[in-house]
Structures are given as structure tokens and as C-alpha cells.
Amino acid sequence: MTPTRVFLFDLDGTLVDSGGAGRRAFEQSWADVLARPHPFDGVPFSGCTDIEILQAGARRDLGRPLDDDELARFLARYLEVLPSMLNDLPPDAVLPGVRPLLDALADRGDCLLGLCTGNIEPGARAKLAPWDLNRYFAFGGFGSDAVDRTQMTGHAIRRARERAAGPVRILVIGDSIRDAVAARGNGVRVALVASGKTPADRLQAQAPDLFFDSLVEWRDVLARFLDTAP
Ligand SMILES: [Mg+2]
Fold it and tell me: How far is the CA of 14 from the centre of ligand 1 (A)?
């Protein structure tokens, strides 16, 4: 069956609650590579791409962005320390409803699943690996594709269209205002779920196409994703 529906999932706060592991890995990597106290207190992470976060910290601490060599060394160190930060998480950090929802979507021949996350791809894969979630996502758009989330989302959409090789309806699913802005910037629909850092009322103020407090009522979520709700 040819896929006619595409679902592009954000990672942190949407699929998984990594309990700040990414932030701690950023802090540790900065201290290790720059040999300075990290500058990330108060820097927003939610909905931002990794390089966007990193350079915001760099401008704050150094008054300039990291150069290419510093950036490469930081990201290499980040990928070294991230798995150990994830070891400290509870036995299952997958958000409620996510597994059965992904199973149900993956079982349908008309649905294509992808990632749409500000994490650099190897960081995203590392965050999903402990929970065996990578198997649902053969492709995506990542923070390693673009610094700007709208452009990053555009890469996810382009790859989805290449795979589908026909007309598709695309839905981006995320937990932050930035997910909505980036989806709209690409002319696709967005579902917001209040399982991350952004309060429900602020998400609803974006007037998303779909809104959920969580994905726990996954059968209802699935029906609304497929536009089959009564
Ligand atoms: Mg998120």
C-alpha cells in the first residue's frame, strides 16, 4: 500500500521525557571542552535545535558563536556523555500512550512515521535507543540538518515526500510553540500535546489543528490523527 498520511514526531516532551538528560549532557560537555562553567542556566531548550541552544550559550558566555572546530569537539563530547546521562532515567521514560499509538500507526500500510526533532541525528538516536523506539522511524528531520527549526522541519517533509512518492497529508506532532510555528512555516498541519514543558493554555493559544493534554487516550488520538473521529 502506498502511504497517504505522514506523521512527523518531535522527540523530547512528545515521545520521551528524558528528564533533562540532554541539558545535563550539554552542561557537562561545555565544561569538558571549553574548560569554563557552562552558560546554559535559563537558556530555553524546549523546541530549539541543538546548535541553536549551543550558540545561544556561546554568545552569552564568550560573546561569539563557537567556531567550527569548537563546535565539532563539543558535539563529539556530547555524544560521548549523553548515554551515561540517560542511564540515570527511570526504567521507562516513554510518555503514556506513545508505544500503542506508534504500534497502531506502524501497523497501517497507509501511514509513514518520521522524526522531526531539534536533536542532532545521533543524539536523537541515542535518546530513543534505550526504549527501542528507533525501529519506528526510518527517517526524519534533525537538528543536524539545519539550525532553524522551520528549515529543519522542511527537511523532514522533503524526505517524507520522497519516500511516499505520491500525494500525502502531513501532520507534525510536538510539545512546544516552536513545533507549531515550524509546521505552519512549511504549510502542514500540527498537533500539539501538553506533555512537555509548555503549559496547555499556551499551546492552545496557537490554535493547533489538534490538541491533546497527553497521548494516553491513544485510541482517540489515533482516530483524530486519521480524521475518523465521530
Ligand atoms: Mg519537544
Answer: 6
pLDDT along the chain (230 residues), means of 10: 93 94 95 95 92 95 96 98 90 93 96 98 97 97 97 98 93 98 98 97 97 98 85
Measured in Å, residue 178 CA sits from the centre of ligand 1 at 9
> Which helix (H) or strand (E) element contains residue 81?
helix 68-86
CB 127 within 8 A of CB 21: yes
User: 108: CA distance to ligand 1 center in Å?
Assistant: 25
User: Cell numbers of 42, please?
Assistant: 535559563
For residue 183, the domain's CATH number is 3.40.50.1000
As a whole number of angstroms, the distance between CA 83 and CA 25 comes to 9
CA distance 5 to 20: 32
User: Is the model's pTM score more than 0.90?
Assistant: yes
DSSP state of 134: G
Q: What is the domain count for the chain?
A: 2
Task: Identify the H or E element spanning 115.
Answer: strand 111-116
Which of 69, 81, 86 shows the shortest CA–CA distance to 133?
86
Domain region containing 61: 21-86
C-beta of residue 50 within 8 angstroms of C-beta of residue 42? no
**CB of 149 within 8 A of CB of 48?**
yes
